[in-house]
Amino acid sequence: MSHAATSAHTEHNYLNHQKGIWSWLTTLDHKRIGIMYFIAIMSFFLLGGIFALLVRAELFTPGKTLFSADVYNRMMTYHGAIMVFMVIVPGIPAIFGNFVLPIMIGAKDVAFPRLNLMSWYMLMIGALITGSTLFMDRVDTGWTFYTPYSSIKTGMGVIPMVLGVFIIGFSSILTGLNFIVTTHKLRAPGITMTRIPLMVWALYSTAILQVLATPVLAITLLLLVAEKTLGVGIFDPQLGGDPVLFQHFFWFYSHPAVYIMILPAMGVISELVATFSRKVIFGYTAIAYSSLAIAGVSFLVWGHHMFVSGQSEFAGLLFSVITMLVGVPTAIKLFNWIATMYRGSVRLDAPMLFALGFMFLFTIGGLTGVYLASTGMDIHFHDTYFVVAHFHYVMVGGTLMALMGALIYWFPKVTGKMTNDTLGRISWVFIFSGFNVTFYPQFILGAMGMPRRYYDYLPTFTELNQMSTVGSWLIGTGFIVGLVAVIHGLIAGEKAGNDPWGGKTLEWTIPSPPPHENFDKTPVVTGGPYEYR
Amino acid sequence: MSTANHAGFHHAHHFESAEHQYQSSKQGIWLFLVTEILMFGGLFVAYSIYHSLYPQIFHAGSKQLSITLGAVNTVVLLFSSFTMALGINFVQRGLRLKAIIALAVTIVCALIFMVVKYFEYTHKFHVGTVPGKYAYTDETRSTTKVAALVKEAGQVSAEEREHTLHMDEEEYKHLRLLNDTHNWPLFFGFYFVMSGIHGLHVLAGACLIFWVLLKVLRNKVGPEYYTPVEGVGLFWHVVDLIWIYLFPLLYLVG
Lengths: 533, 254
Description:
Chain A: GO terms for molecular function: cytochrome-c oxidase activity; heme binding; metal ion binding; oxidoreductase activity. Chain A: Its EC number is 7.1.1.9. The complex is a heterodimer. By secondary structure, chain A is mostly helical. Chain A is built from 17 helices and no strands. Chain A has one domain: Cytochrome C Oxidase, Chain A, CATH 1.20.210. The longest helix of chain A is centred in the middle third of the chain and has 35 residues, at 243-277. Chain A is globular. Mean pLDDT of chain A is 92; it is low at 1-9. Chain B is an all-alpha fold. Chain B has a domain at 31-131 and 182-252: Cytochrome c oxidase, subunit III, four-helix bundle (Four Helix Bundle (Hemerythrin (Met), subunit A)), CATH 1.20.120.80. Chain B starts with 17 loop residues before the first helix and ends with a helix. At the A-B interface, α7 and α8 of A face α1 and α8 of B.
């Protein structure tokens, strides 16, 4: 590019296209909206992380360590609600999906730019309402808001909390809708559905889930509000309702939501593995369709959250089998990534380390999921720390590893500057090792019978809990190093150039940072997304 | 003056053509309507579960609803869907004045629907057929307001019921049936939540139709560009469609 020689000041790109805070708050540019999501979601992540560290600190010793049980319950609730609804669910799609999806398919923007901005504002409004409950009547239900505790027993703070989540859900639906239409309608000439990058396939499958699952959460939360304000009795056993119906509804959304969290992460990993192995991805179609398969199966497995809720044995059996079925498309992806690395020129830059960390941790999370999907084992493990360890391995080990990998991978494209690779690797070492130190002991704790959510525990469990708490400090350190890497990169990062990693997807063919309208000329694509050799 | 004299429409920069933008917008609207149906789907599922568990509650409850008023509202909404469709057609053909009339009639229908709903609701508040805890006279949930009313009505003659309590024999019979049914407020929980959320959609729809009406008045839409009119129209048809399911479910099935 002729631009490369000129200095950063004269380059015309999306960052200096318009100036001032107002131009950001009213922007319709998907890249800027992606950055706004990044800032917002990372702030939520910091908050949720602080709650996590406090929860772990409280569990350092049995009995009271720092706070009362009431404060502990609230912190645990906010940790869960913030992390799930405001960090992991919107995380990768809203930040990186917004930034790279249109570029990857050769589009100038998402299909509905105004709607895109509106989604961001809805996330902000929802987060404000949810956050405001910190200063209101207590919310100590856990992020699942299970009835009858949430509907009858606890304080009225649940109402604004749930309404905040409802609005956040709207934001999620609108983002998903936007991505589906963008993928269908805005692909550049030559990009057929089987030539789009795997990240786009993952985001597309996620978007389908967002659109189809979230409305059920919406009505569930509205019913909970109606229950609390009008006493409609749909969930209240005293009035003839059924509290377990809430669980059915809740998990009919929230189980697919687990894949809303993980599918985009898998998309990121596909990109990373292909780029850093310098090889055509192995089994493109298998990886692409396995995303759709996961999305499809995810709607049929919610009952595994309810093995001990009194559902029929036959239902338990069915949900058990279907749940294990999810392992098939997941394994397809994993084996294809490994096959891609086989005889590839694998480079262990920081993003690739995070990708390998993802595969390692997600595999442990996935395999322990098989234990929990077996009805007999689940009765032993139900509501113990085994479950906590399992879903942290899947969600944190999976999604947050991918988020960090994506952050370092696309940082040069977003800012035009590189992050320091050593800092990135140090961050990875801390997060990866700290993560195992934190959550591996929890498998053992759970198998020994320590219940989840509890404020107190038996003295027998002390050592393992302390190990876990120390691990949480290591993770915290790792993310701080990651933050330092980002800030250092912004201030003193080397100039990146168009394609610092040797990526082959479309976003690496345009300047970094990209121009306002992404492409000077609409690209015409004649081959697949990963043409290495 | 049959052809609209609206400003020439330019498609957004990231679309190839106006047609491309129109097709994309339409797909977006359809996807949004899918989410609406799924949201009501949750309510329909809950309704059918409880209906099969407690058929007597739903039988006694549905007797309290006025089939006449419900039917009037059904006809009003069906007619409004017709006028909405006409409105879209007129905008597409550039018949501005006719489009304005059709859209205005649609809004009037929406308002008629809400007024009828208002009378239905106030009557429910009056006799005490309301959901959950509000149906009871005390905190312990031992007596319902309906029980108190039925008791009062039982002590007077039929004529006095008609005059002082505004209650005809039919209604008295139905209220007694309801009063004999254990836990009937559950039905009104469903009634108020389902018809209430639908009512909010009617109001939202009326506002949206008003918005496109303004667009017609300001010549912002016409034969070359009518996406918002058509989108709002699709939304309005779904609102109508949901009512077509709600009416038999709440009023007739019991």
